[in-house]
Write a structure and sequence with these properties.
By secondary structure, this protein is mainly α. It folds into 2 domains: about 50 residues, no CATH class; about 240 residues, MetI-like (MetI-like fold). The protein is built from 15 helices and 2 strands. Strands 1-2 form a two-stranded antiparallel ribbon. Strand 1 and strand 2 form a beta hairpin. The longest helix has about 35 residues. The radius of gyration is 25 Å and the shape is flat. The relative contact order is 0.11.
Length: about 300
């Protein structure tokens, strides 16, 4: 009888929700075809890849970890790895708290019209490509003709090579990244803040809490779970690096701090037709990112948070 009831419930459930599963088929098929199926080409990292033979017909490397050894014994690889960790780490240190602060400040604004105008202004840079932003930066920070250096010169100072000196390049790189993405990332935090019960603020106000006290004891604890989840996801991307941002901004004078893994792979692997080397470095990046992701999730759970799974 129990089996019949269970079968009956399953049948009724499927009959009631079959349209939802039908709608789910397309995104599942998309993920399988364009996300999981290409993962079979990971074997390229362990083969002597020949584009005319294809991945499966190409011979296995001897030794099997040949391309990993070649990458690890290259000085430029370790330089690119160091720069990737440094730039992504600075992005995380300075870029992660700013959207939280901006979201809290926007939430505290009393004038709704001014709040909407401010939101629009800070969101807009996100929609500009890094090619456009790098062009603007090169015009603004040019040593002789840039607006910034013209103003510095009129103030009695000497021209500054913002994009041609290693330390200043890193600072400019991080600052432009903060300016571009800070406003867009506040959307998630603003959405989390709107989910906080307004009665908590009213009760705190009755008890005489100041605005800073309400932020510290209500707003921040209310969005803590969102902060932790986004921090874990950012930790999972600590070794991953976008291509357009460093490639558009780097130049020959700052390659010691501007060359990251993505540009190294493009220059040495793709342009040099070393596709197996490219696959090996990409697999190395992915494995390290997964390790960081699991570690960050485990640490979050150790401190009592839910994590992302």
């Amino acid at each position: 009888m129990k089996e019949k009831r269970s079968t009956r419930k399953t049948y009724l459930y499927i009959k009631r929700t079959w349209t939802l599963y039908l709608m789910l088929l397309l995104p599942v098929a998309f993920a399988l075809v364009f996300r999981y199926l290409p993962m079979t080409n990971i074997s390229m990292a362990f083969k002597e890849y020949n584009m005319f033979k294809g991945v499966w017909a190409s011979e296995w490397s001897d030794p099997i970890f040949k391309w990993f050894q070649r990458a690890f014994h290259t000085k430029d690889f370790w330089l690119a790895l160091r720069n990737t960790l440094m730039l992504n780490g600075l992005d995380l240190i300075f870029g992660f708290p700013l959207p939280i602060i901006l979201a809290i400040l926007l939430n505290e604004l009393a004038f709704k019209r001014y709040k909407k105008i401010t939101q629009t202004i800070v969101y807009l840079p996100h929609f500009l490509s890094w090619i456009i932003i790098s062009g603007i930066a090169k015009q603004l920070f040019a040593p002789r003709t840039g607006v910034v250096n013209i103003l510095i010169g009129r103030s009695g100072g000497a021209p500054i090579d913002f994009l041609q000196e290693s330390g200043l390049y890193v600072a400019t790189y991080i600052a432009l990244g903060l300016w571009k993405e800070m406003g867009w990332n506040t959307i998630i935090y603003l959405a989390a803040i709107t989910g906080i019960n307004p009665e908590l603020y009213e009760a705190a106000e009755v008890d005489g809490a100041t605005r800073l006290r309400k932020i510290w004891h209500i707003t921040l604890p209310g969005i803590r779970s969102t902060i932790v989840v986004l921090l874990i996801m950012n930790m999972g991307r600590i070794l991953g690096s976008e291509f357009d941002r460093p490639y558009a901004m780097q130049n020959g004078l700052v390659m010691n701090v501007a060359d990251v893994l993505s540009t190294y792979v493009y220059r040495v692997g793709i342009r040099g037709s070393q596709f197996s080397l490219t696959a090996a470095i990409g697999l190395f990046q992915s494995v390290i990112c997964v390790v960081f992701l699991f570690a960050a999730n485990a640490i979050a759970k150790r401190f009592g948070e839910r994590g992302i799974w």
